[in-house]
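Q: Please design a sequence for this.
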């Protein structure tokens, strides 16, 4: 069924996002679900990304016929930084994609160099911009930038975000808490909360499987054991180490961690082999089965602005036991859908898990019923209404404000390259051999900075 049958015309929507299918993240999952629904409603979608395999978004040929892609060159830091996400460089391909596709609206995701470059082009061409902010880098920058320069780096990033979000025609984010933070940071127009959905057909209690449960136990299965599951990228801010303390207090519990990343080499030795298993990345039906086959979902991170994994676990009928965070306010009630603990409080965490054990049957029912209220159709319908709202029928002509945008973009990118990129911390504290090339990682990053600066200068000169 069409999301908005009352709409008389279809739109040409260009989306610029680094995080996209088949990359595993809440952002990638959101845009996969939204784009499929918008294309199914007759809209033409063009996606600019750096993710390999983006063309495998869907197997439906009719839907795929209305989706096109510009997969552009991107840098990857899989072996050096705890981030497998391709870093999409600002490049001529972005300009070409916009000129060739001639979109009615441009949707920029996050505040990366490529997204802000795309927005600058759109402003030059008088194309309305919808901007969605998903990641709270105010939290991440102090973790990933050297402490002595982190405050200055954060101020540069906040200025970039403030500059460009104030130029957008419509701002979206995923939680009221993050919306308030953006407004406090100087975003003058209203920041709207974009509803989040979950695929309740895929993430469903019916996927519970004894075979998957045994696989998650990794040879340590026992019918009287409690199976905990935690899903996420293995990185420092996720605080997986904290879960070791819970296992020490619950010898009858076994933890299966779904996800991957360079940080795994640091985490594995911390967990007792008889109580934990790192199963790696899972997707689709396998991931759904892993959720449904566990007894409880545990999560120690408070870094998310929303946290798609909570909703997926709830849809699978799995009670939540997690560190208390503002990202859960949109959909979670303590004591109704699970229990939370005060961050870094081991005793409180153990009490939360024990409460959930005592009340599991009621929590399972409440979680599933609550998740059914969060549909991707509703989220797609909301953003479709936004696209129609910002669309203008004015004749496209060059907007001089775009020159101001490019100047701002250029100056801010230079500052980011000089005061952020060279000072990024390596995420995983793993010792390297003395002859390892990664020992010279700061030099490597500085070289990348210089190469990127040359590329930016070339782009800027081409517009002068």
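A: Design:
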């Amino acid at each position: 069924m069409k999301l908005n049958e009352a709409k008389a015309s279809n739109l040409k929507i260009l989306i610029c996002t680094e995080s996209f299918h088949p990359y595993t993240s809440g952002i990638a999952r959101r845009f996969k679900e939204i784009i499929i629904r918008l294309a199914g409603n007759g809209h033409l979608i063009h996606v600019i990304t750096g993710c390999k395999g983006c063309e495998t978004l869907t197997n439906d040929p009719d839907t795929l016929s209305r989706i096109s892609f510009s997969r552009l060159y991107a840098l990857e830091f899989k072996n050096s930084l705890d981030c497998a996400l391709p870093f999409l460089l600002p490049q001529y391909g972005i300009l070409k994609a916009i000129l060739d596709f001639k979109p009615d609206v441009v949707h920029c995701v996050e505040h990366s160099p490529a997204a802000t470059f795309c927005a600058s082009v759109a402003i030059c061409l008088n194309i309305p911009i919808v901007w969605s902010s998903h990641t709270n880098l105010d939290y991440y920058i102090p973790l990933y930038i050297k402490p002595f320069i982190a405050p200055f780096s954060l101020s540069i990033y906040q200025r970039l975000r403030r500059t460009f979000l104030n130029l957008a025609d419509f701002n979206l984010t995923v939680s009221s808490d993050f919306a308030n933070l953006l407004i406090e940071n100087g975003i003058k127009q209203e920041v709207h909360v974009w509803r989040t959905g979950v695929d309740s057909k895929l993430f469903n209690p019916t996927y519970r499987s004894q075979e998957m449960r045994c696989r998650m136990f990794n040879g340590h299965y026992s019918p009287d054991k409690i199976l905990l599951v935690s899903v996420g990228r293995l990185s420092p801010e996720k605080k997986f180490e904290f879960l070791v303390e819970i296992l020490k207090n619950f010898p009858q519990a076994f933890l299966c961690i779904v996800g991957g990343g360079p940080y795994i080499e640091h985490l594995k030795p911390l967990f007792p082999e008889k109580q934990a298993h790192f199963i790696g990345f899972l997707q689709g039906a396998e991931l759904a089965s892993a959720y449904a086959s566990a007894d409880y979902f545990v999560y120690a991170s408070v870094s998310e602005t929303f946290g798609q994994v909570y909703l997926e676990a709830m849809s699978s009928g799995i009670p939540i036991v997690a560190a208390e965070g503002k990202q859960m306010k949109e959909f979670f009630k303590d004591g109704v859908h699970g229990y939370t603990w005060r961050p870094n409080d081991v005793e409180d965490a153990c009490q939360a898990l024990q409460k959930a054990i005592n009340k599991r049957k009621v929590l399972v029912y409440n979680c599933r019923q609550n998740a059914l209220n969060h549909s991707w159709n509703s989220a797609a319908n909301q953003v479709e209404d936004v696209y129609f709202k910002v669309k203008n029928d004015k004749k496209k002509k060059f907007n001089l404000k775009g020159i101001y945008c490019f100047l701002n973009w250029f100056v801010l990118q230079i500052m980011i390259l000089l005061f952020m990129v060279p000072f990024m911390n390596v995420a995983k504290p793993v010792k390297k051999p003395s002859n390892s090339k990664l020992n010279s990682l700061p030099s490597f990053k500085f070289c990348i900075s210089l190469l990127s600066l040359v590329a930016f200068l070339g782009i800027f000169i081409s517009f002068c």
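Q: Thanks. Anything notable?
A: Confidence is low (pLDDT under 50) at residues 1-6, 79-83, 427-446, 458-464. The longest strand covers residues 44-49.
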